[in-house]
């Protein structure tokens, strides 16, 4: 293709094949002051499935910073979600491809540290981000399996055992769900679970009228995500995830789980959600095991609320 030529005062000008663009500077901003469309464009630029509504929800339940250029374009983001006064999860750490490997993510993470000083932090690192977090002293903990696909209800697999009953949750179940989530996650997440209830459909497994396990499911990305799921056993986790699979049979469903073996993991793959990718849970400060010391093995977080929220 021949380059377009222009003329100036009778002389023909041929543009050069390359153009040097000056380095530009970025400033920090509060994520709450940015239009959702701009955040959505940022996550699309790195191939993430979040919709504008997903960003909206994350801003309702968390805080964050953005890197802005001179004309207000969003070139980077980082968010944190505090629970209590000494713990937070970190997520939505993104730098636009044209800004990558120049230290912007390091710079954004330092702004996160300034905002949650002395907190124990947990996050789920993509492969691209592992080196960044290792350099910030985060310690690797466990693999997260991102399982997704077009849901289908397997014919085999446990339903609720005799003496237990699976039913739809309502607002009166929120306090019991918060308590179960705290036991599984290791930290009480009152405000988050309340907000998730407002956006989700939930099923609970009741034994003698007491909530023993629950699974929430909400719209996210390309379809729906099931999480969190908190249960004592694989069989209970399957019993409360199964009705969500039935509800979304034939459409896109996703689950992020630490479980790799056993009945629950097998159920996901039979339900049309094989492992699509993995990320790595990492922590700074208290290690994952420190949150469970002195507790008997019991309730477990079978699926995350999301990779961002933990
Ligand atoms: C992961 C991501 C946030 C890193 O952002 P970034 O602005 O490139 O990171 P920085 O320039 O601050 O680099 C931080 C560290 O990672 C290293 N690094 C960055 N990109 C790298 C690459 N492609 N290969 C190897 N190392 C790399 C840097 O050298 C630096 O390491 P150092 O401190 O040892 O020198 C960015 O690549 C991104 O947005 N990726 C897509 C979304 C994503 O995966 N986000 C992470 C969510 S957990």
Automatic annotation (TrEMBL):
What region holds the YitH/HolE acetyltransferase (GNAT) domain? 178-287
Which Pfam family is one of those matched by this entry?
Answer: Acetyltransf_18
Instruction: Indicate the secretion signal residues.
Output: none
Going by the entry's taxonomy, the superkingdom of the source organism is recorded as Bacteria
**Coiled-coil regions in this chain?**
none
Report the protein name in the record.
GCN5-like N-acetyltransferase
- Keywords assigned by UniProt? Transferase
